[in-house]
Amino acid sequence: QVQLVESGGGLVQAGGSLRLSCAASRSIFRSNTMGWYRQVPGKQRELVATITTGGSTNYADSVKGRFTISRDNAENTVYLQMNSLKPEDTAVYYCNAGVLYYSGIYLSPGDYWGRGTQVTVSS
User: Fold this and answer.
1) Regarding beta strands 117-122 and 100-102, do their DSSP bridges make them parallel or antiparallel, or are they unpaired?
2) How many whole angstroms separate alpha carbon 117 and alpha carbon 44?
3) Do 18 and 8 touch, CB atoms closer than 8 A?
4) What is the pairing mode between strands 117-122 and 10-13?
5) Which of 35, 56, 104, 121 could join 52 in a cystine, given CB atoms 3.0 to 4.6 angstroms apart?
6) Rounded to an integer, what distance in angstroms lies between the CA atom of residue 86 and that of residue 13?
7) pLDDT-derived band of residue 2, with 50, 70 and 90 as boundaries?
8) What DSSP string runs through 27-62?
9) Considering Cα of 92, then 56, then 63, then 72, what sign does the dihedral take?
């Protein structure tokens, strides 16, 4: 059974930090590029960060230098360390498996999504 389960969201003040975790089924974790996306009401879901099976990472410009994505292949878990949080980072954060790239160019998220975890940053 394919599963992606996010945790670690919450309420934090601006300038603070949170670490999100996504525990994945082994069957989809080991061979897939993993990603974090976020969505606020009324807006499209947007890419935050991705990490390949080899550890190559990619970030949205809005989070570069503040967020770090990593993966633990032994635990089938992907993390998103978020530092220097801003109120505009407030969103529901979703884990995704199977992110598609072609020749290094981002194409689309994969087919597998978690249910999301709420991150709220107060000013």
Assistant:
1) unpaired
2) 16
3) yes
4) parallel
5) 56
6) 8
7) confident
8) HHHTTS-EEEEEE-TTS--EEEEEE-TT--EEE-TT
9) positive
Q: pLDDT tens digits for 15-57? A: 999 999 999 999 899 889 999 999 999 999 999 999 999 999 9
pLDDT score, position 1: 74
DSSP characters over 84-117:
S--GGG-EEEEEEE--EEETTEEEE--SEE---E
Characterise 26 by phi-psi region: left (phi > 0), alpha (psi -120 to 50), beta (else): alpha
The SS3 assignment for 7 reads strand
Check residue 40 and give its pLDDT. Answer: 98
Taking the chain, what is the end-to-end CA distance rounded to the nearest angstrom? Answer: 40
